[in-house]
Design brief:
It is a single chain. The chain is α+β, with helices and mostly antiparallel strands and about 270 residues long. About 25% of the residues lie in helices and about 35% in strands. It has nine helices and nine strands. Strands 1, 2, 3, 4, 5, 6, 7, 8 and 9 form a nine-stranded mixed sheet that branches. The longest helix is centred in the N-terminal third of the chain and has 12 residues, at about 35-45.
Length: about 270
């Protein structure tokens, strides 16, 4: 039975797809998480973080799969961040901004200024990674269509990023709707040619990342969040991850199962021969 899928690409010099944040280090996983993809589509529609109902409806309406077309290198930088220190004997207040919390407002400056501390916060990134994302709708969706999502990805309301705001996209998403029996078949219709790869990566990067071979096959990593015959890939690993968006204002995320497989596929030159 044929299904309809929406495929688009993500490419950026630097990307960050957050995992669990521990202490002062902000880590990243090697592929776009569901929360980052839901946030991407929500930003394209102009949905704000405080509009939690709209974000939840979007998250329930769509399913995602990701193919890693080019693996990435890990990078790390650090930020110096001002935080309030151990403040005692001061009435509790709900801060609307970090500016108020640090005591820069006139009302609280005398009480808080001397308590400000500075910490180092580390940020991890993946660099020069290339992904293809496959999106499909659940059977119980309402008025959301692939055509509407495609239109918004082409003309987004808000600026789109590869995770953090410091990670702008380097290529258009180029969304396209395809018909296929499985997610794997939809991915097969959206392949990057060797010429496109050479435009994006240097010769040294291509050799180092093992993207092009003369005799061997290319290995591609797949991640998806649903399981069934409509996927078309036999999973080799099932992992419990926490990236199901629950509350964007409170930064709360729920658990879900993620399926993974590494497939050894022929390159375009092998298929021609």
């Amino acid at each position: 039975m044929s299904r309809r899928f929406l495929c688009f690409r993500i490419y950026a010099p630097f990307a960050a797809f957050g995992s669990l944040a521990v202490s002062t280090e902000r880590d990243t996983v090697i592929h776009p998480t569901k929360s980052s993809l839901v946030g991407l589509v929500a930003a394209a529609f102009g949905i704000k973080r405080e509009e939690q109902d709209k974000t939840e409806n979007l998250s329930k309406a769509v399913r995602f799969a990701v193919r890693v077309d080019a693996p990435s290198f890990f990078w790390q930088d650090y930020h110096t961040v001002q935080t309030p220190g151990n403040i005692r004997n001061i009435p509790h207040k709900h801060w609307k901004t970090r500016w108020e919390e640090l005591g820069y407002s006139q009302e609280y400056s005398n009480r808080y200024a001397k308590h400000v501390e500075t910490i180092i916060s580390y940020r991890n990134y993946v660099s020069n990674a290339l992904y293809t994302v496959c999106l499909w709708l659940c059977s119980n969706t309402t008025d959301l269509t692939l055509e509407r999502i495609k239109e918004r990805l082409e003309k987004p309301v808000f600026t789109l990023y590869a995770g953090r705001k410091s990670c702008p996209l380097a290529l258009p998403l180029a969304p396209r709707i395809v018909e296929a029996e499985t997610v794997k078949a939809a991915f097969d219709q959206c392949q990057f040619s060797e010429q496109e790869i050479k435009l994006l990566f240097s010769e040294q990067e291509i050799k180092l990342l093992n993207l092009l071979f003369n005799e061997n096959r290319r290995s591609q990593h797949y991640f998806w969040e649903d399981h069934g015959e409509h996927i078309g890939i036999q999973p080799t690993l099932r992992t419990l991850v926490r990236d199901e968006p629950r509350s964007r204002t409170k930064w709360q995320f729920g658990e879900r199962f993620e399926y993974t497989a590494i497939l050894h596929e022929m390159t375009t030159e092998e298929k021609r021969s």
